[in-house]
Amino acid sequence: MMRAGRFRYHVASTVADAAAALADGGPHARLLAGGTDLIPNMKRRQDTPDLLVSLRHVGELRGISVNGETAIHAGTSLDDIVKSAAIRAVHPALHRAASQIASPLIRNTATLGGNLCVDTRCNYYNQTFEWRKSIGFCLRGPVPDGICWVAPSGRRCWATASSDSAPALIALGARLTLLSREGERDIPLEELYADDGACPLTKRADEIVTSIRIPSRVVRSTYWKLRRRGSIDFPALGVAAAIRPGPHGVIEDARIVLGAVASHPLLVPESQLLIGRTLTDNVIEEFAEGAARHARPLDNTDFAMTWRKSVARSFLSGALRELRGDDPSTFPLLARETALRNGWRFE
Ligand SMILES: Cc1cc2nc3c(=O)[nH]c(=O)nc-3n(C[C@H](O)[C@H](O)[C@H](O)COP(=O)(O)OP(=O)(O)OC[C@H]3O[C@@H](n4cnc5c(N)ncnc54)[C@H](O)[C@@H]3O)c2cc1C
């Protein structure tokens, strides 16, 4: 049986209490929300904190309000998001992403804040301590001067961003509130992420994600996920798309985001090129081809990387066709099979 190392435990009663404990705890203190990512990582000795600050009893960190702008407190469980009729109606991308995270049991415990801060993943890293030791560990330690087994000649970690909710929320234009003992700050969600597998978050260690806000713009949105097992699995690819159609279907705003193909959720720069256009077949296919070029999956997660790249193009096309209101039976083959296998309902 794998056991976590020894650690101290502080049960916070308020966010201010948690912020103070985190600041006093120093660099080896961690926040514990649902624990569905952190605890397995501690058992595998990927992380060895000496203090856990539990957010489980911080009531002010839970709740959803959809009233013009949508606000979701960071300690809200994924299950509460999935069960929210308002989220389902107003933000289908977030609803579909949340409902495909892990399994029902995990979604009951796991929180949105934890999902946004979930660690990056790699076949050479998400292994037991003994397994990693047998290959001499990797760039991420715990020994110095390890190599990256994915790209041995380089000096960076290519572990993959694996949150499902992050691409969906970035597509929806979400913003994040971070709180520390020094005060609050507010950032666009995409700025939380750095393109670095070993150090994927830009926030300071003493900052707590307290809430996520989605603007009230009327958009159509969706999220497509590739995973091996429909019942439980991290994304091998995620495509989130949100568009705001104006009169005659002319697009007024568009944000398309790729997940699980880089160390950060990737906001496709060509999204802007969709503005002012209508989603004709040509526009969709031209966009899907260009955007899929940003997907550079590496050989560090599930499925063959060249195949994952081809799925990116198919999913981009499928997602935009869904937003246009097409019947799934007309989608490109891979997209059609995924939609039907998952039983996605297009409303
Ligand atoms: C079998 C299995 C399958 C999984 N499948 C998926 C999947 O398909 N998709 C997916 O996205 N994830 C998946 N996960 C990962 C994980 O369950 C989810 O990402 C979950 O949402 C993490 O939330 P949590 O509350 O449990 O986070 P925790 O484990 O408590 O925390 C995760 C990290 O976030 C930090 N953190 C937590 N809350 C905050 C906060 N408010 N502010 C700042 N930092 C914070 C913690 O310190 C820690 O570093 C899976 C996990 C397992 C075990």
Verbal overview:
The protein is α+β, with helices and mostly antiparallel strands. Among the domains are: 1-61, Uridine Diphospho-n-acetylenolpyruvylglucosamine Reductase, domain 2 (2-Layer Sandwich), CATH 3.30.43.10; 225-342, Enolase-like, domain 1 (2-Layer Sandwich), CATH 3.30.390.50. It has 12 helices and 12 strands. The chain has helices spanning 15-25, 38-43, 78-83, 85-90, 92-99, 104-109, 112-116, 129-134, 165-171, 281-292, 305-324, 333-342; strands spanning 8-11, 29-32, 51-54, 64-67, 69-73, 175-180, 183-188, 208-214, 220-226, 237-245, 251-259, 266-267. It has a 5-stranded antiparallel β-sheet with strand order 4-5-8-6-7. Strands 9-10-11-12 form a 4-stranded antiparallel β-sheet, sandwiched between helices. Helix 5 packs antiparallel against helix 9 and helix 11 (305-324) crosses helix 12. The chain binds flavin-adenine dinucleotide. The site of flavin-adenine dinucleotide has 31 residues, from strand 2, helix 2, helix 7 and strand 8.
